[in-house]
Amino acid sequence: MLNGLSVGVGLACLTAIVGALAGMPAAITAASGASTASVADTVCAPQAKWQQMLPAVLSTLLVAALVALSHPSLLWLTVVVLLTTFTSIFWMAWGKRGGPQTFVMILTLVFQMAAFSQQPMSLAQAGQHLLWVGLGAAGMAAWSALSIRVLARRYRTLALADSLQALAKMMRSQAQWTQSHQPGQAKGQREALLTLIAQQAGIADVFQSARDLLYSQAEAPGCTPLTRRQIEGLIHIVNLRDVVQACQLDLDRLPDQAETAQVVARVAAQLMTLADQLDNMALCWRTNRRWPPKASPSPDMAWPDSPDAPPVLVSLGRRCRHMQALVALIAQSHDEAHQPVHQAAQDTILRTLVSPTQWTWGPLKAQLRLQSPVLRYAMRATLAMACADALAHVLPWTSHPHWLLMTVAVVMRGNLEQTLARRDARVQGTLVGCLIASALLSSAGHTAWLFLALAIALSLAHGFVLINYRVTAAAGAVLALVQGHLFNPTDHPALLDAAERLGDTLIGAALAWAFSYVLPSWERQQLPRLAQRLMQAQAHYTHHALRWHLAHPRSSRRSLARREVYDVLWLLSQSLQRMAKEPRRTQGWATALESLLVHSNRLISQLSAIKGLLTVRHQELDEAIVAPALQKAEAQIRASLQGEAAPAVNAASPVQPAPTAMPDDISPVPEADSPRLTGDLNHWLMLRLAQTVEEARLLNLAAAQLNPDRETL
Predict the structure, then answer these.
(1) With helix as H, strand as E and coil as C, how does 641-703 read?
(2) Residues 211, 185 share a domain
(3) Residues forming a β-bridge with 550
(4) Is-above-0.85 flag for pTM?
(5) Would residue 358 count as lying in a domain?
(6) What distance in Å separates the CA atoms of residue 388 and residue 66, rounded to the nearest whole number?
(7) Which domain holds residue 534?
(8) Which of 178, 362, 391, 418 is least crowded, fewest Cβ atoms below 10 Å from its Cβ?
């Protein structure tokens, strides 16, 4: 919302300046260029802003020039429409950051078709028009580069607060799942567990947004103490996520004793209590209030710690105390008096966890194959746009043919589930927006008020696109109707244009829905590739997790490996959700995908638990026993994950222990604060390793069901 407000203010200022210097027609044209370029103005680190905005400015100019050259000929204009549609979809090859660039091109196409359809332009007039469009786009890019300098600090604070709230929500869900968990009945919790897994995978996207904003500043010369404390807090938040997730491990092996129910209830209560504290911390960050010291400590709970207590219950108690200690460290990072330790090695490692901002050719080349979902999406969207373009010229109303194209472009998504959601939201939002625009155009007298409405509509459309698309659709309808009126003021009732807009929306939404079944890219077609990617990511993470307490040349890549696992889990969770909306005949692999998610989640939870033992209590372990066991376990796990025979294990360790763990995305609780397990810790680690090897075997079997060509072990 803050980003949307910034975009709206930028459009208002730019329009006012151009209008005062060159008149309203020039201001209207510049506003169209600024509006399209603003789509790419999303929240990012200041260093990445120009890499975000420069392609948007170039795309705006290129598409506007193509429309200007082709508008006298209907045939050539149709070619431009189809060419722009097809090429714009390929921005999706770069994932989430490519999406806005796609809509920069589509929105430019629609806006410029609107401008040139109102009145014919000579070559000189078209050149002047393009000049103002380019000035508007460049002006918005400059505004974005300046505004990010002002808002970056607030963005970082909000990203940290979002991470706290997302983790608190996950902890509450896990607490509810824990309360309903009964010994010996874990299989009946499958559906609830899948929901929890999807939430755990989804939180990775929130964490990555915070990493991009905070870790990108780690090596910046002007990194302030506040940013240092926020970086430290985010590291503890990520570590807390791992400990929370590891709490799931022991619930399936709880002993059938009277004490078990009490411990489970305490675990759930502890999760709820800590979640409340995280929510309060998030509120303090948002409102810039001090975290009350008296609210920091969590109530002490009695945990089994006697020699006769079952080790599983002791493990749960230890993990809950670990969570409590991490929450205390998160609260400490909010204290202005706290001075985080600055280490250059840590900054270098954290910088590697920031998402790439370069536009390399690799992702695009990977999509140039018929099985590629991006290529099939581009072909499908182009066919739909061709049909919409032909239909727009034979309908009883033809004054705004670009509206039909716009609806098809924004409703059709890369998968059926998102298309259906966009279809409903687009129709509902457009209906509301048409009513608002009709009332506005009927009552607003001065053009300045319409420009104000334009800025407000752009702010809402920009701010709500990922929150509630109905609001974006309503604001988009206001934006289109008001901008169309500014381009070509008429005396006919505004309700006629609104009715045409609504009719085009209904037809365009139906076309997008229908063409979703043309050259489809069903989720099952992508599952073997995603399953293979998951197995590779799990193998990489296993290598690093079993060496987290050691310093070796590749240790800087270990948190990157963990992030890759969560990224793929999120994609697979989304596939399972989208599969439910697809035709029943395409849902045959849903059960196998569920098994893959469950066992992958359990594997990463086991690795997180082992990582905690190795980093927090490695001094208590017998190196002569642990080192060979870790090597053997890694060889067995890698053999399962890679579908190959287990290699021979060398007796000598390839890495050397470091005096302390590398300051990566892990900050273990000090040894004095770590509770002790009863029994032999070496034996406990051996048990964890055996369970991890078994989970890797089961994961291999689940992956084989999704990829028939994969060899199982």
Answers:
(1) HHCCCCCCCCCCCCCEECCCCCCCCCCCCCHHHCCCCCCCHHHHHHHHHHHHHHHHHHHHHHH
(2) yes
(3) 657
(4) no
(5) no
(6) 20
(7) 524-706
(8) 362
